[in-house]
Design brief:
The complex is a heterodimer of chains A (336) and B (285). Chain A is built from 14 helices and no strands. Chain A is mostly helical. In chain A, helix 5 packs across helix 14. Chain A is globular and about 85 Å long. Chain B has 285 residues and is mostly helical. In chain B, 74% of the residues lie in helices and 0% in strands. Chain B contains eleven helices and no strands. The longest helix of chain B is centred in the first third of the chain and has 37 residues. Classes of the chains: A mainly alpha (336), B mainly alpha (285). The interface between A and B is large, with 51 and 49 residues.
């Protein structure tokens, strides 16, 4: 266990430079690529307004001072205040929208793995047959599925024509559950509010299926190739010789051994999951981080936009840390 | 260029499956290129003129119907291929040039600069691409060139990591040592001896990267951070059609989005096929 602890400590220390570099990249993009003040007030604003805003945001200081101000502010856990609507702290605004994104991404993640692993297994166990080719092609198509288009097609079919499911929002506005975690499905279960539970699940179905199917392609591919490898090994032939049914061989013996690459892929997919969530949220007016970011870009709320990106950067670093530690638990070879 | 000819020859002598993938992808891609090149001749109407009553469903005069402003959707689709191809190609070329050059120098010279650059590139690579592009596009503002830059920055790490990884193993090869022994300078070794060995990988990554760039371009335009209207653009037209979804006007959204998907599949198939033909060792089982 000592080596595991050493590994975790090293890994946490290694996260620090990554966070610093990500924060520096964000700073560089926000200040040096374009002029934030022009981005806020537009190119034809009166000069006195430009000067005032520049002072207010501390943008009149030399760049190196701005950078240290920014880093020191972040070390204090302060993301600044919004430029619009009551100037709330950015972190409070982010925490208002973050649970919606968590709810969407978790359910999409689960759906993508279920679809991907099942199709991958079927594809591998009918290797070379028409079913295999069909599933492989479906894998390429899911990768290319443009999320807004796919989401709108589902909205059109299940929302507009069939009228089965709502096409936007997180829940019926009349029945918000009491906020405990901010995840509506979980909150409604915790408060035994079944009307809210039904409404929040119905709202969740289309967005999470959209994102889940789009992300499933990569799991189809990785499960398929890993299963093909495993199904060729001697212990599978031995199991067949003992007369075990195919279903047991494939799902119990083979899948268990083919699963490590799938797990690895889950960790690598996090960035793609987040990017996909931005498009899914905008398509379904899902009030999460993506919708929030785009809305504030339109209002030219510079500090909030910067704070949200910083938050995304910290999230990426945090998740990659957690994933690596998780592997170290699972696979002793990682702890070098 | 001799290398490329050999590669093209190799494509058609290797596995059949790879060949069909290339042909299918190539057909899709060349059709869209044809659309873009001859857009003025083949499109029935001017894409930004109000030619008919708005919101007409597909009929024999307007094969894909008309949009909310009475513009012909088919003509907008045909002309929209220009925007998406321009942005996807230009941004991929830009990130290839920067990424491959940095990767070559970084991998070959090593040392502190290499470590720092790798750390920066790895961090950028870990960050969600679309969100990075959104940030850059938001700061730069709307417009064709800004969109190209935003997308190009996102994919630099892809080329950098691929190039650097290959250079690290290639520079240990005997022929590089031989080149050093006969007194070839660093520039010659990098560009004449190492770079040509990367060509086939770069071609594959470039093709697959264009597929990614198309999705990112469409995503940015859909989010309102792309090209400014009324220039035809598939992603933007999809966004414009979204407000009419509730009324069931399916033709406003179906066609632009479908084009994004078809073109992405085209480049993906092309890349997959090229990969099978050019890199037999990396071929999937």
């Amino acid at each position: 266990m000592a080596s595991l602890r050493a590994y975790i400590i090293t890994r946490i220390l290694l996260t620090i430079p990554m966070v610093f570099i990500l924060l520096t990249i964000v700073f560089f993009i926000m200040r040096a690529v374009g002029d934030p003040v022009t981005a806020i007030v537009g190119a034809h604003a009166p000069p006195e307004q430009v000067v005032r805003l520049r002072e207010e945001l501390g943008l009149n200081k030399p760049l190196i001072y701005q950078y240290f101000d920014y880093i020191i502010q972040l070390l204090r856990g302060d993301l600044g205040r919004s430029l619009i609507w009551g100037k709330r702290p950015v972190i409070a605004e982010i925490l208002d929208h973050f649970p919606a994104t968590v709810e969407l991404t978790i359910s999409a993640f689960i759906i993508s793995i279920i679809i991907g692993v099942f199709l991958g297994v079927f594809s591998a166990s009918s290797y070379g047959k028409p079913l295999d080719h069909t599933i492989r092609f479906a894998g390429i198509v899911t990768y290319a599925l443009f999320i807004p288009w796919f989401g709108m097609m589902l909205q059109l079919i299940f929302g507009v024509y069939l009228g089965w499911l709502p096409i936007g929002g997180r829940i019926d506005p009349k029945m918000y559950p009491a906020t405990i975690t901010g995840l509506y499905v979980l909150d409604s279960i915790l408060t035994w509010n079944f009307e809210a539970l039904k409404s929040s699940i119905l709202h969740l179905i289309l967005p999470s299926i959209t994102l889940g199917i789009v992300l499933s392609g990569v799991y189809i591919r990785i499960t398929r190739s890993s299963m093909i490898e495993v199904l060729r090994q001697d212990f599978i032939i031995a199991a067949k010789a003992r007369g075990l049914p195919d279903r047991i061989i494939v799902f119990k013996h083979a899948l268990k051994n083919a699963f490590i690459p799938v797990l690895t892929m889950m960790g690598l997919q996090f960035a793609i999951l987040l990017a996909g969530a931005v498009l899914t949220e905008t398509t379904f007016s899902w009030p999460g981080m993506g919708t929030f970011l785009l809305e504030r870009i339109q209002y030219r709320d510079f500090t909030t936009v910067q704070g949200t990106i910083v938050f995304f950067a910290l999230l990426v670093a945090f998740v990659s840390l957690v994933v690596d530690i998780f592997y170290a638990f699972l696979d002793p070879r990682v702890r070098y | 260029m001799a290398g490329l000819v050999e590669h093209v020859g190799a494509i058609f002598s290797r596995r059949r499956a790879g060949r069909y993938t290339i042909i299918a992808g190539g057909l899709i891609v060349s059709t869209v290129f044809f659309m873009a090149l001859f857009a003025d001749i083949i499109s029935p109407y001017n894409p930004i003129d109000f030619v008919a009553p708005p919101l007409q469903p597909p009929n024999k005069n307007f094969l894909m119907g008309t949009d909310a402003l009475g513009r012909d959707i088919l003509s907008r689709i045909i002309h929209g291929s220009r925007t998406v191809l321009t942005v996807a190609l230009a941004s991929s070329i830009l990130s290839m040039l920067v990424g491959v050059t940095l990767g070559l120098f970084s991998g070959y010279s090593g040392g502190y600069m290499d470590r720092l650059l790798s750390l920066i590139m790895d961090s950028m690579y870990a960050f969600p691409g679309l969100i990075l592009a959104i940030t850059i596009a938001a700061i730069l503002g709307q417009g064709l060139y800004n969109m190209i830059i935003a997308i190009a920055v996102v994919y630099i790490p892809t080329y950098f990591r691929m190039t650097r990884g290959q250079v690290l193993s290639l520079k240990e090869q005997l022929y590089v040592e031989a080149a050093k022994a006969i007194g070839a300078d660093t520039k010659t070794i990098m560009f004449k001896y190492i770079l040509p060995n990367l060509a086939s990988t770069i071609i594959v990554v470039f093709t697959l990267n264009i597929a990614d760039a198309i999705l990112t371009e469409a995503g940015l335009s859909f989010l309102g951070l792309g090209i400014s209207p009324p220039t035809p653009d598939w992603g933007f037209d999809l966004k414009a059609g979204q407000s009419f979804l509730i009324s069931g006007y399916w033709w406003l959204i179906t066609f632009p989005g479908l084009m994004v998907i078809i073109l992405t599949i085209g480049f993906s198939l092309l890349g997959e096929g090229l990969n099978e033909a050019l890199n037999p060792r990396l071929r999937k089982r």
